[in-house]
């Protein structure tokens, strides 16, 4: 028989009120506590609550709750959106993982650190190429802290009427910390784009100053994360306000193997295939590896067959040659013999790897290479 799950009366009252007010931060806060407590009596119920907490709430607009969401005065578009917690794992290079861990641990020990005058601002700046996992990291941080993630697209803040940008920034910075969530500023470099022709230099200064003031005015407990593809466009004064930094790069060979293993083989890949695919994906991001993998898996499902490594490898080569050579021409239309030589020279593939990619025997590969 299942054990009954007990709920503290105050939590129940809080939960009912939060639900009726569509106050997702409180629903998640109480929900996370209940999930942990329930799991002790009944693991399955605990899991079910956790799964429910990962759902996106009803759009705030339909719940009537949107009244309080800051919007752009001209377009009336919301400047802040709540994102659900991610359900996929994240794979990080060691250096970034260390920052990730210490950021979380410093936040969790904030009070203790504050007592010794050692609590700093919880501001994290992530920079790096597209598709390397920055947004995913923000989601994982919010999930680990059990807090809602409020995402602000800086480009929508900035594209408003002249003069409204500063007002928009204040609106967002006033709103989110009050809600007790993680404030995530995506496309952070958009701030720098105020430099564009339609805005004059005075406007840029005003915007950057407003932003700096808003960051400085944040309560010590506020959690601010920003992400950019172009860190070089950011003002130095802004940089200084982020004590935690993560510089993303395209994944290393080792990380690529983890990504291929997870996305293509669901964690059951063999070393030979993982090494092969990681060799073929020098300039691919995690998002590229994911999209190639999904296509190969869809293909396998449709054909009722195993995942075709050769198909994924071909797609990776296609990406790779397009990235480095422009249009992939030097790869297309090659005979097997030419392709064998190309894979050997450009990617340093072994005989067995080439035979896998081209679906030809190892003897044939050896013959071609000898020739
Ligand atoms: N390191 C990683 N670990 C796990 N998944 C990853 C990783 N990098 C990328 N992905 C996959 O690619 C998707 C896109 O990544 P994400 O949106 O986090 O990239 P980003 O760095 O924010 O890119 P952009 O700069 O374009 O916003 C993720 O949802 C995930 O599925
Ligand atoms: Mg992103």
Question: What this model shows, in words?
Answer:
The protein has 371 residues and is of the alpha/beta class. The protein folds into 3 domains: 1-53; 59-247, P-loop containing nucleotide triphosphate hydrolases (Rossmann fold, 3-Layer(aba) Sandwich), CATH 3.40.50; 253-370, no CATH class. It has 18 helices and 6 strands. It has a 6-stranded mixed sheet with strand order 1-3-4-5-2-6, with helices on both faces. Strand 4 (182-186), helix 10 (201-217) and strand 5 (223-228) form a beta-alpha-beta unit. Helix 1 (9-20) packs antiparallel against helix 2 and helix 14 packs antiparallel against helix 15 (309-325). It is globular and about 75 Å long. 32% of the residues are buried. The model has no long low-confidence stretch (mean pLDDT 86). Adenosine-5'-triphosphate (ATP) is lined by residues 88, 90-92, 130-136, 229, 286-287, 290.
Topology:
Layout: H1 9-20, H2 24-41, H3 43-53, H4 60-63, E1 80-83, H5 94-108, H6 110-115, E2 122-127, H7 134-145, E3 149-153, H8 154-158, H9 164-179, E4 182-186, H10 201-217, E5 223-228, H11 236-239, E6 244-247, H12 253-263, H13 271-279, H14 286-302, H15 309-325, H16 336-347, H17 351-358, H18 362-370
Parallel strand pairs: 2-5, 2-6, 3-4, 4-5
Antiparallel strand pairs: 1-3
Helix pairs in contact: 1-2, 2-3, 9-10, 12-13, 12-14, 14-15, 16-17, 17-18
Bound molecules: adenosine-5'-triphosphate (ATP) and magnesium ion.
Residues 134-135, 186, 227 line the site of magnesium ion.
């Amino acid at each position: 028989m299942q054990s009954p799950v007990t709920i503290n009366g105050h939590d129940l009252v809080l939960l009912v009120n939060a639900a009726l007010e569509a106050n997702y931060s409180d629903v998640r806060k109480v929900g996370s506590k209940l999930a942990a407590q329930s799991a002790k009596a009944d693991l399955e119920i605990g899991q079910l609550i956790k799964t429910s907490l990962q759902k996106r709430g009803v759009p705030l607009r339909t719940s009537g709750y949107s009244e309080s969401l800051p919007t752009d005065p001209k377009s009336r578009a919301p400047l802040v959106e709540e994102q659900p917690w991610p359900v996929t794992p994240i794979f990080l290079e060691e250096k970034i993982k260390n920052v990730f861990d210490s950021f979380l641990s410093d936040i969790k020990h904030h009070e203790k650190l504050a007592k010794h005058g050692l609590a700093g601002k919880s501001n994290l700046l992530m920079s790096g190429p597209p598709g390397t996992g920055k947004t995913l990291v923000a989601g994982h941080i919010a999930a680990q802290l059990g807090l809602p993630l409020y995402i602000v697209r800086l480009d929508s803040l900035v594209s408003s009427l002249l003069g409204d940008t500063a007002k928009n920034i204040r609106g967002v910075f006033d709103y989110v910390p009050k809600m007790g969530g993680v404030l995530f500023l995506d496309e952070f470099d958009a701030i720098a784009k105020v430099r564009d022709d339609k805005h004059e230099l005075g406007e840029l200064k005003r915007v950057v100053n407003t932003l700096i003031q808003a960051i400085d005015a944040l309560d010590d407990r506020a959690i601010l994360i920003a992400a950019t593809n172009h860190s070089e466009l950011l003002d130095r004064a802004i940089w200084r306000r982020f004590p935690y930094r993560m510089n993303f790069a395209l994944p290393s060979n080792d990380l690529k193997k983890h990504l291929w293993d997870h996305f293509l083989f669901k964690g059951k890949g063999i070393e030979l295939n993982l090494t092969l695919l990681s060799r073929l994906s020098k300039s691919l991001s995690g998002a590229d590896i994911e999209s190639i993998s999904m296509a190969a898996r869809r293909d396998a499902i449709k054909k009722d067959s195993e995942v075709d490594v050769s198909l994924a490898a071909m797609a990776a080569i296609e990406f790779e040659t397009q990235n480095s050579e422009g249009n992939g021409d030097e790869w297309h239309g090659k005979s097997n013999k030419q392709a064998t030589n190309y894979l050997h020279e450009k990617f340093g593939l072994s005989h067995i790897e080439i035979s896998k990619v081209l679906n030809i025997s190892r003897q044939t590969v050896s013959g071609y290479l000898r020739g």
